[in-house]
Design brief:
two-stranded antiparallel ribbon, 4 strands, about 170 residues, mainly alpha, elongated
Amino acid sequence: MHKSSSRKISLTTSLIAISEGLSDQQLLEIKEAFSLFDHDGDGAITHKEFADALNVLGQNLSDSEISDILEQMDTNSSGTVEFFEFLDVMAKKMLQESVSEHEIVKAFQLFDKDSKGYISTEEFRYIMTQLGEKLDDADVDEMLAVADSNQNGTINYKKFAEQISSS
């Protein structure tokens, strides 16, 4: 029976990962993070394990703050956070933070008034240093080294989106 239960958790884990669109590497990272919290390896994070891990990470939260976080993650109301619950929360967080290649292309298309498929490095520098989350010149220079690798003064934003989405 234990073997079947273990297989069911693996299937659940796989289904969540697939449905959330996680890569194998992202799933591995989440498993490693979970194991940092699950000190006794029983497949669940207790209040004490969570508090200890947060303290190690320099996060000194009150017991009530920790309880609030765990309560939000504990969707089956077991009093602990099982791996599938942790996976669900972390997968959503990871996917919110990642930007798709399509979204990057759409953003660049706003500045490509002639629909040529590229923008100038000057336009790129202006966008990156003056709009939205402003970057400093050193960061933009690093990005330009990748974006304008042939140094022709233009950025093929579809290729650039592929490069940064795959990294």
